[in-house]
Each structure stands twice: as C-alpha cells, then as structure tokens.
Amino acid sequence: MIELKTEVATKGITGKAVSNFMLHCTDADYQKWWPGTHLAFHITKYFPGDLGNHVYFDEYIGKRRFRLRGMVVEVVPGRKIVWQMKKVFRLPAWLILEMDDTAEGVRITHTLQAGFSGIGILFDPLLRLILSRDFKHDLQEHAQIEFNRLAEMLT
Predict the structure, then answer these.
(1) Rounded distance, CA 127 to CA 2, Å?
(2) pLDDT number for residue 118
(3) Is 26 helix (H, G, I), strand (E, B) or coil?
(4) Which domains are seen in the chain, by residue range?
(5) Per-residue pLDDT averaged across 26-38, rounded?
(6) Distance CA 83, CA 52 (A)
C-alpha cells in the first residue's frame, strides 16, 4: 500500500464548512477555489446523505493533469470523507480528507492511498511509477496551497 499524506492547518473555518463544501461542490465553486488549477468537480450521481455519490474531478497537480471519477464510500460530516477512485469498476485507490477542528480553525489531513491486495500486490511497483517522489512533493505542495486558499474563500 502506498500512502501519501499531508497535514494542513487552516484558520477561520471548521471541518463542517470543509466537508459541506466538498460534498456539494460545483464546477464553478471548484474553479473559484483555484482558478486555472482546479478545472472541474461535480456530482454525477447523487444519493441522499451523500454516501455513494459519484463525482468527477479534473485538476492539475504540479504539471500533471488528473481527470478522475470517484465514489463517496465513507462520510462523517465535519470529520471525514473518503472517495474511492473508479473507472468502469472501483480501483484500489482512495482519497481521504480528515478534518479536526482546533481553536484557530481546522487541521485537514489529505491522504492518497493506493495499492493492491493478495496477488495484485505484484502491481504496486507500477503504482510507484505514477506516485513517485516528485508526485509526492507536488501533491504535498498542492494540498498546502489549496486548503489555505479554501480557508480564505470560505471566510
């Protein structure tokens, strides 16, 4: 299992504000958040309570463009959202946002996990080609910038 984790301390917002934004984001909201970097993020299939929602997102992380589909597989409002990436079927990759309210704002832990189980673990080295050290650096920088921008936008 490959895990890329970044913690970001933001000021002036709550975990509830972050999770509400992420669970109900539109392309216009996403583009306003980080113009030119965040290109699209919207629900493609909605379920009451948000669990099971299908989403599409399109963004740049460093110089790489990522167009992904995901499905909300876990929601704890104000605390945690987990999207599992999918193509035709669910992939062994998850984007996890955990929010922990503090006196100043919220600490957001952004985690990307990817990896196979069983015999599929033989494919993990291929994932490391995509989730390289350079990508890890770009993703950490991206998360630091984006969540501080979100705090500014939501306050």
Answers:
(1) 8
(2) 75
(3) coil
(4) 2-154 (3.30.530.20)
(5) 98
(6) 9
Name the nearest CA neighbour of 74 among 92, 91, 49: 49
Query: In terms of pLDDT, which residue wins out, 1 or 53?
Result: 53
Tokens of 1: 């299992």
Contact, 147 vs 110, CB < 8 A? yes
Report which DSSP code applies to 51: T
Q: Round to whole Å and give the CA distance between 71 and 53.
A: 6
Q: What pLDDT, on a 0 to 100 scale, did the predictor assign at position 52?
A: 97
Residue 1, pLDDT > 90, answer no
The conformation of residue 46, written as its DSSP 8-state character, comes to -
CB atoms within 10 A of CB 107: 16
> Would you say residue 126 has pLDDT above 80?
no
Q: Which two tokens stand for residue 29?
A: 């909201």
